Every structure is written in C-alpha cells, then in structure tokens.
Amino acid sequence: MRIDIEIDRDVCIGAGQCALAAPNVFTQDDDGYSMLVPRKEDGAGDPMVRDAARACPVGAIKVTEAATG
C-alpha cells in the first residue's frame, strides 16, 4: 500500500502541529503554511504521519492508502 498525503492549503491556518509531529514529512513555507518536505510526498514510511494529520486543528491534512499497481 502506498500512502497519499493531501494538504488543503485553503483550510490550513499555519498552526504547525503537523511539522512538530512529523518533521521528516511536513514543513512550513515562508508564510507559515504546511507543505510536504521535498521527496517525502509518500510519507517516507514515517509512523507519525497519521498522528500529524490528526493534530491539525482545522483538518487540513488527509492521509489515505492507495493500492499500488
């Protein structure tokens, strides 16, 4: 299974909880909004990705599993 991570930048408020929970996958841009670390778009096997999504106070992050094929 492959993990897809989506960040709704229209919803993100820049709280930074995702970057604190999973700093190997999430970071913040110059304006403070969430973004994925380059080349870590698949979660890089980080077990904290789902916790980071749950930590978002506005639910801007969605983590889904997609079948590879």
Describe the protein.
It is a single chain. This protein has 69 residues and is an alpha+beta fold. Helices cover 17% and strands 26% of the residues. The strands form two sheets. Strands 1-4 form a two-stranded antiparallel sheet. β2 and β3 (34-36) form a beta hairpin. The chain is globular and about 35 Å long. The termini are close together. The mean pLDDT is 93.
What features would you highlight for this structure?
alpha+beta; two-stranded antiparallel ribbon; 4 strands; 17% helix
Which secondary structure elements does this structure contain, and how are they paired or packed?
Elements: E1 2-7, H1 17-21, E2 26-28, E3 34-36, H2 49-55, E4 61-66
Antiparallel strand pairs: 1-4, 2-3
Write down how many β-strands occur, each being a DSSP E stretch of 2 or more residues. 4
Order of helices and strands: EHEEHE
Q: Please give the alpha-carbon distance between the first and last residues.
A: 9 Å
Task: Please state roughly what percent of the residues sit in beta strands, choosing from under 5%, 5-15%, 15-25%, 25-35%, 35-45% or over 45%.
Answer: 25-35%
Largest sheet report: 2 strands, antiparallel
- Helix % is 10-25%
Helical segment count:
2
* Radius of gyration computed on alpha carbons: 11 Å
Q: Which stretches are low in confidence, meaning pLDDT under 50 for 5 or more residues running? A: none
C-alpha geometry: globular
Mean pLDDT across all amino acids = 93
